[in-house]
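TOKENISE THE FOLD
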Amino acid sequence: MFINDYHIHSEFSGDSKQDLREIFEKAISLGLEDIAITDHLEYDIEGITDNWILDLDKYVQTILNYQREYKGKLDIKLGVEIGIQPHTREYLEAQVNKYPFDFVIASTHAINRHDLAWGELQKTRNKEQLQQYYFETVLDNVKNYNNFSVYGHMDFVTRYGGEEYRGLEYRKNADLIDEILKILISKGKGIEINTSGYRYKEDRFYPCKDIIKRYHELGGEILTIGSDSHIKEHLTMDFDIVYEFLKSIGIKYICSFDKMKPIFKKLK
């Protein structure tokens, strides 16, 4: 039995039409203790459309209402996934500070207004150059932004651009990754293990096993697991693979969050 799912998108995200109540009923049927709804909060990405603008007032109030309705049946956490860019950090922090979030995922979806998924960043960079640029940006973000719980899908730069961009060059970026992990640990921040890679034909979770092992070796303890689901059928998908891996390297706990504080739960 799985404990929770801490990366779930709903109809409030620009890339999902999933009804919230259906998510909650699915989570109950799976026997989950708690879940975090983490809809997208993006800002200033070239080509972004109005349906990507998160109505935070409506979103937060809706989740809070459902928390009351499902009390005693499912612990629903108010979360958000913020797409950080160096020039949007101040704006995003101001937005996050307005609301009583339990859990915030910081992610790098776009760099300098260009979304990784749209191919512009790949036009002028090969695989090695793009991965270095991506991790340099993540490093800048973790150095200069603090209002988050975990860093999301930390190496998913390999997801986009086609086959020539697949496969993480871990050794070539090891120093950058180490610096990122050390800063996260020093700030009391965690990393997310995101299973969506299996659905994007990468046959792995994000970040890769080497990064998770290194985070653990450096003393990192705060880990969440998220499906990154945009439809209810993807809740907890491939979590069995993650649980087995974590146990194999001596990790005994994953985290839930409440009011931005981690709660350690023993792996089942």
Notes: The helical segments are 20-29, 56-69, 89-97, 120-123, 127-144, 174-186, 209-217, 239-248.
